[in-house]
Amino acid sequence: MALSVSAVLLLLVIVVLLVRRAGLNTLHAVVCVLLGFYLASSNMAPTIDNFSSGVADMISSLSF
After folding, report:
1. From start to end of the chain, where are the E strands?
2. DSSP label of 62
3. Cα–Cα distance measured from residue 22 to residue 47, given in angstroms and rounded to the nearest whole number
């Protein structure tokens, strides 16, 4: 659950920065949010979840 909340907050910050700095229209951001909701309820949701968990595990295993 903590990974989901962290990922959502990170993506929210990125979208806000894109809307303010990069000229992303608010309508485009709303379309992206709706796409996320539809993907979450689709058959691809477990695959996307496994992929994001794998990327998070890979990042957490890096040492600097």
Report:
1. none
2. -
3. 30
